[in-house]
Amino acid sequence: MPPTPLHLSSRSRRTTEQPISWLIQQAVENRDLISLAAGLVDEETLPAAEVVQACEAILRDGPRARAALQYGTTQGLASLRQQLLERLRAADGLTPADHKLAASDVVLTTGSQQLLYLLGETLIDPGDLVIVEAPTYFVFQGTLRSLGARILSVPVDHDGLDVEVLAELLDRLERTGEIHRLRFIYVCDYFQNPTGRTLSLPRRQRLVELVERHSRRQRILIVEDAAYRELRYDGPDLPSIKSFDPENQYVVLAQTFSKPCAPGLKTGFGVLPRDLMEPVLLLKGNHDFGSSNLLQHVLDDLLASGAYDRHVARLRRAYRRKRDALTAALAEHFPASSGIRWTRPDGGLYVWLTFPEGTETGPSSALMRAALRENVLYVPGEFCYDGSSGPVPRHEARLSFGVASEEQLREGVARLARAAAAARAERSELAAIEL
């Protein structure tokens, strides 16, 4: 006799499989595949020796060892939070007098993904509005949908989020009386996932001005996902959006140690407006009443000893070479006559590829079928759109140079070029049959 059915919550029913599951399945099932899809980090540069040294320093010191192996606080290790605050000030060129921030405004989380989820859980009721970039980080779109948010999107161009299109959208929400349902604007502002583009300095300032202007009845937040800030290979560092929020009211800054250090440490952090911290901590207490205390002690040691900064410097050199290998291979295999264009990011892990109109890149497309036959994988660009800003482009793709070696990147692009040629031939044959 079959079991009686379970009752699932409305949130569970809204939660669908993430596209990343499909991408991982392809990689797992085919060990010969070169993945230009996974946003994983380079295994050869993971700081194994530095983490061993930090663990030994902690665990050989009796009092430190016992403190690290005990429960921590929900908000996180105080000394690490203080270090992170001081590093943020230094990166933005701020003094304590410039900004109303304290270590009590910093929270440590189990990766930045937990922070993003906690923010959504704290702020969103079903039917509330969230504005994202188009294209955007597709994993967070799934989180927003599971929380019942209505997603609106604003296009990204060479200078990041188009803030004038955003201004028009905010004005429209004012006119329709929906502005009170807008909870936050999510922006990945350094070397964006997926396009690799960075929000320009004037647009950072303008974004904060727009949020302040439209927060007359109820405050709108900016969620600044700065996951890739430290992975900068060219050009000057730009101040965070948070630096333009001196009263600590409008911007939540989210960062992670996964990309610039090691994802296995599974630690992120946020800098929050003061009146948001308590509700976030209450929910975090329901999740875990504190992320890994031992790993926080390890990161505290890595930062204090300088090992973290030395590692990031090595990582930048390694990723710069890999970015250059990928873009050089693209230039070799996709000449200007092909009509294929791509971004050359100043940092991060991603290159955004745009094929000519009519060349579909989706999971069921001729290009994807040919790519899988060639044992190469990319992220279909359509995964990175929600469709609220108009028709979803079907001719884009995200490439990552994070995990593949320089040799694999060159070979992967060669395979992708062969796949593109095969897809063109297939389309030509179909067109001839239709005629």
In short:
This protein is α/β, with parallel strands linked by helices and 435 residues long. It is built from 14 helices and 14 strands.
Low-confidence stretches: none
Q: How are helices and strands ordered from N to C? A: HHEHHHEHEHEEHEHEEEHHHEEHEEEH
- Which CATH class of the largest domain? Alpha Beta
Largest sheet: 8 strands, mixed
Count of individual beta strands: 14
Structural class: alpha/beta
CATH fold description of the largest domain: Aspartate Aminotransferase, domain 2
Task: Provide the number of structural domains.
Answer: 2
State which percent range the strand residues make up.
5-15%
Strands in their spatial order, largest beta sheet: 2-9-8-7-6-3-4-5
Instruction: Return Rg in Å.
Output: 23 Å
- What is the 3D form? globular
| SS field, number of helical segments | 14
What's the CATH architecture name of the largest domain? 3-Layer(aba) Sandwich
| Fourth-level CATH superfamily of the largest domain | Type I PLP-dependent aspartate aminotransferase-like (Major domain)
Task: Report what the structure shows.
- The chain has 435 residues and is of the alpha/beta class.
- The protein folds into 2 domains: 14-45 and 310-434, Aspartate Aminotransferase, domain 1, CATH 3.90.1150.10; 48-305, 3-Layer(aba) Sandwich (Aspartate Aminotransferase, domain 2).
- It is 44% helix and 14% strand.
- It has helices at 10-14, 19-29, 48-59, 62-69, 78-92, 111-123, 138-146, 163-176, 201-213, 274-287, 293-305, 307-333, 366-373, 406-434, and strands spanning 34-35, 106-109, 129-134, 150-157, 160-161, 182-188, 221-225, 251-256, 268-271, 341-342, 350-354, 376-377, 379-380, 396-400.
- Strands 2-9-8-7-6-3-4-5 form an 8-stranded mixed beta sheet, sandwiched between helices. The protein has a 4-stranded antiparallel beta sheet with strand order 10-11-14-13, covered by helices on one side.
- Strand 4 (150-157) and strand 5 (160-161) form a beta hairpin.
- Helix 6 (111-123) crosses helix 10 (274-287).
- The longest helix is centred in the last third of the chain and has 29 residues, at 406-434.
